[in-house]
Structures are given as structure tokens and as C-alpha cells.
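cron nightly-structures :: item 1 of 1
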Amino acid sequence: MTGKSLSERVGELGHRLAVEAHAAWLAARDARTPWPARLLAVAVAAYALSPIDLIPDFVPVLGWIDDLLIVPLGLWAVRRMIPDALWSELHAAAEAASERPSSRAGMAFILLVWAGLLYIVYWSVRTSPWH
């Protein structure tokens, strides 16, 4: 039997989505990207690269909808809004970055930002006069 196993194909799809999300993040920070594309790219990349999901993955079927539909559709929309030459350049930079080791410090920073935001919400609710 030739070809790749299902787990290998899923792994490759995950890698491609991560590279596309990184390219979208690079596009959001590039001054040559049109403003509407930059705004959408920030939203899509932040959501795709964030450890927090709109629908948690442990929720059966619905938890994977954001990973299987929302992120790819957002990346597709960002891709359509950016000129081909610029996207090729950004995608090549994202692909090169994917071959480097990941940053645990960056992950810790993102988690601290989310924890801080959750604390602010908690504090706001606790000190609210309606509580």
C-alpha cells in the first residue's frame, strides 16, 4: 500500500495551516498589505495562533469546527485580499520560520496575556455593583 497514513496527512495539514497563519501574521505587520487585509489578518492569525478557542476542542464535533472551518476560511479570505507577489514573499518567510525551533518564552507570554485578561474580567465582575 503506497501513500501516506491519515495521521501523516493530518500532520501536514496542521503544518500548512500554521505556516499560512504565520504568513497572515507577517502580512498584518507589513506596510505593503492593504488595510482591510491587515485587519482581517490580525484577527485570523491571533485566533489561529492563540491557545484559546472560541469553542473548546473537548466539545464533541463543535469543538473542531473552528479549526476545520473558521481558520481555513479566514486564511483564504486574507489570501484573496493580498497581492500574489507579496503573499509569495510572506509565505516563504513563514515557511523558513517554521523550520526554526519554537519559542517557549513566546508561548509563556501569550498565556500570561490571556491570564491577565481573564483576571481583569474576573476583577471587573467581582467589583461590579450588580454582583
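cron nightly-structures :: done
The chain has a mean pLDDT of 85.
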